[in-house]
Amino acid sequence: MDITRLFAHRNLLVVGFLILILIFLTTFPLYGGSYYILVLTTILMYIVLTVSWAMFSGPTGYMSLAPAAFFGVGIYIGAILGAKLPLLVAVAAGGLGCFILALLIGMVTLRLKGIYFAIFTFGLLMFLTEIILYLEIHIGGSRGRHVFPASDEAVFYIMLGICVATLLTAYFIRRSRLGLAMQSIGGNEEAAAHMGIDTTRVKVFTFAISAIFMGAAGAIMAPSLIYIDPYIAFNMRYSFMPVLMAVFGGMGQFYGPVLGAAVFAYTERILRIQYPYHYMLTFGIILILVIVFLPGGLVGLIQKLQKTRLISKLWNRGKEEEHANT
Amino acid sequence: MQILEGQDVTKHFGGLAAVSHVDFHVDQGEIMGLIGPNGAGKTTLFNLISAALPLKSGEIRFKGEKLNGLKPHQICQKGVARTFQGTKIFADMPVLQNILVGASFGTPTRVSAADAAREAAQALEFVGLSELSTVPVKDLTLVSQKRTEVARALATRPELLLLDELMAGLNPTEVSEAMELVTRIRDKGITIFMVEHVMKAIMGMCGRIMVLHHGEKIAEGTPQEIAADKKVIEIYLGEETRAGS
Questions:
Q1: Which of A180, A183, A197 sits opposite B73 (nearest CB)?
Q2: Predicted confidence band at A4 (pLDDT cuts at 50, 70, 90)?
Q3: Facing B101 at nearest CB: one of A180, A190, A198
Q4: SS3 category, A234
Q5: What is the ipTM of this complex?
Q6: What is the pLDDT of residue B245?
Q7: Whole-number mean pLDDT of chain A?
Q8: Tens of pLDDT along chain B (245 residues)?
Q9: CA gap B100, A180 in Å, rounded
Q10: In 3-state terms, what secondary structure has residue A111?
């Protein structure tokens, strides 16, 4: 088969590739060792956090530092409910709980602009940590709690499900009216309002949608933590990592944050195991290099390569034929 | 018929009365001009009509219906569209997508994606930018950006269009083209209320003109009446101006 013809069906190619990945992931526990199941679960978790963060903050430009807050609330909901109810119910409750929390917070904070919004969302994280610590000590009687166990496979499959749901939601929102509305808010919020967009509603609603996935991811991660206290559950790392990963991957394209999260999480894992003493240093240098030399992130790099490489010539020729055929 | 009426419209910024007890009206189908020195309150009045600023004192009615307390997106959906002094565009979006935003959200009932796309394409053609539809707006010249803004406002299917200094920064040829565009919009049946400093445009196109100074209305009438008004000449036009020339 002529390779140009293969590239002519680029949409088919992309769909086929995605199906292959999905098959690989769903069958992974059959042959991958339990260690790699944990690694993959972590990578999927970062993809969920990053894509759901980029879902809202990408187009609107409102920099949220709340992911760790929703993730932590999800962990707590999962830990408390998961002990008595089926795992899936606990995960759904984690998502729903964070949706409601984000609606309430959004109604108050999304009137804030720029840096003030970022600071408030970060403050929320601090606030929730202290509140829950207070409640744990005064009501529970101890500062932490042990979490019910769950099999690694079950956690993996549910995380995979959440990840697929996150990606589908992000994809369809991006292409929908809501996506257009968010983009115009990011472009010029005042003009967006005068074009008939209820900016407050759009912002609050999408902020809350993105929180669903963060909360669900937290709820399913609870069992693998074994023991939690507020400082473990509300770790600011989970607020900054999604931002870094999205920037690392590049926010211009849909697949940027996905790629960023996957590569970033995997590299981090490798470095930490291979070079436990230099990992922070190495990682920091990689990050700085990416930000200085690849302002468009990994996506920018791919696009640059596409311009020069043979594969892009084939790809574009395929595209032309596709146009010619239609 | 009066499409827009304001009674006792007042807005204070701290101790400063930006707009002070202004009564005005715009008739259906006319081109109404709003002039005055810098800081007279022209844009503030537009901001009050379009709800960019909340109207706390006085009353504004559109087609007999009170606009007080509505949000900007509701005003737009009622049929009052606007452009901005300077421009407020979605800089990174292509031209057509800018206009698509207006077409998708500007009406009270939800429009289908196909209808919105058709409306946007029509508005784009109407302002003569069809060839630039895929270019990001930030890469356009000022005059094309302004046309994009007009098309975006038209795509919301307004009955009244507020134009805030459409001609500012344009060269004489572009001013003539913009005047022609505004006339064509009026001919479509859309009422126009415009703030403008370009006298040639104001005097040549407006049926009536209203003059603001320090937030107060100091004159209102036909271009001839305004050009002959002693107070207006003293404050704004200056002795040497011969209107319409």
A1: A197
A2: low
A3: A180
A4: coil
A5: 0.92
A6: 43
A7: 90
A8: 899 999 999 999 998 999 999 999 999 999 999 999 999 999 999 999 999 999 999 999 999 999 999 999 999 999 999 999 989 999 999 999 999 999 999 999 999 999 999 999 999 999 999 999 999 999 999 999 999 999 999 999 999 999 999 999 999 999 999 999 999 999 999 999 999 999 999 999 999 999 999 999 999 999 999 999 999 998 887 765 555 44
A9: 9
A10: coil
**Model confidence band, residue A283 (pLDDT cutoffs 50, 70, 90):** confident
Q: Is the pLDDT of residue A276 over 90?
A: no
The string of DSSP codes covering A9-27 is THHHHHHHHHHHHHHHHHH
Q: Which residues of A touch B150 (CB under 8 A)?
A: none
Q: Name the residue type at position B138.
A: K
CA dist B186 → A91, A222, A303, B89, B145 (Å): 58, 64, 46, 23, 20
Confidence of residue A282 (pLDDT cuts 50, 70, 90): confident
Are the beta carbons of A188 and B90 separated by less than 8 Å? yes
Query: Chain B residue closest to A176 (CA)?
Result: B113
Are the C-beta atoms of B135 and B95 separated by less than 8 Å? Answer: yes
Is the per-residue pLDDT at A186 higher than 70? Answer: yes
Residues of B within 8 A of A181 (CB-CB) are 101, 104-105
Candidates A110, A113, A125, A119; CA nearest to A66 is: A125
Distances (CA, A) of A235 to A69, A101, A225, A253, A280: 8, 18, 13, 28, 18
List all residues 6 or more positions away from B181 whose beta carbon is below 8 Å from its beta carbon: B127, B147, B150
Q: If you classify domain B2-27+43-219 with CATH, what class do you get?
A: alpha beta
Partner-chain contact B77 A196, CB within 8 Å: yes
- Domain residue ranges of chain B, discontinuous segments joined by +: 2-27+43-219
pLDDT, average across residues A164-172: 96
Q: What does chain B look like in DSSP terms, one character per residue?
A: -EEEEEEEEEEEETTEEEEEEEEEEEETT-EEEEE-STTSSHHHHHHHHTTSS---EEEEEETTEE-TT--HHHHHHHTEEE--SS----TTSBHHHHHHHHHHHSSSSPPPHHHHHHHHHHHHHHTT-GGGTTSBGGGS-HHHHHHHHHHHHHHT--SEEEEESTTTT--HHHHHHHHHHHHHHHHTT-EEEEE---HHHHHHH-SEEEEEETTEEEEEE-HHHHHH-HHHIIIII-TT--TT-
- Chain B CB contacts of A188 under 8 Å are 88-91
* Residue in B with minimal Cα distance to A191: B88
Question: How would you list the strands of the sheet with B31-35, edge to edge?
Answer: B80-82, B160-164, B191-195, B31-35, B208-213, B216-221
Contact (CB<8Å) A195/B76: yes
B73 to A193: CB separation less than 8 angstroms, yes or no: yes
A280 against B194, higher pLDDT: B194
Asked if A187 and B90 come within 8 Å (Cβ–Cβ), the reply is: yes
